[in-house]
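Collaborator request, handled under Task 6.
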Amino acid sequence: MKNLFGILALVGLICTHVVFAQNGDKIFKTATAKEHIATTSENAITSEQIAEKNTLRLSEKLALDVAQTNAIAAINLETAEKAMELRSTLRSTDVRAFKTQLTALYNQRDADIRSLLTQNQIADYNATKADMKALRDNAK
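Structure tokens returned to the collaborator:
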């Protein structure tokens, strides 16, 4: 009887440990996400870096000339600054408005960029955007 009671107590401890270990993992993930948000705000990428990266990527993919590159760099910088402003003001308070305004901002950027491109470059731009969308969809 004592052995049976000991075995049941041991099984109970093991089961309790497994249950709490799963919940502890969720707590750990939540805590690390909060820490990540706190540390990334200190090491955040700037709007200039975002614009430069986007412009470089487009100039390589679309073989832009100097005038197109400069104009697209200005468009990307303006868009990145507005997007950062939206993230800092609306993202935490009104997510739906944030998504709507950010989508409108990116659609305007795409229209402005397309107005600067030739027909061949527009086709390449559309293909590049489709590839990026496919990558995002596959990541989900």
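The cover message to the collaborator said: "The longest helix spans residues 2-42. Residues 44 and 104 are 24 Å apart (CA to CA). Please let us know whether this matches your experimental observations."
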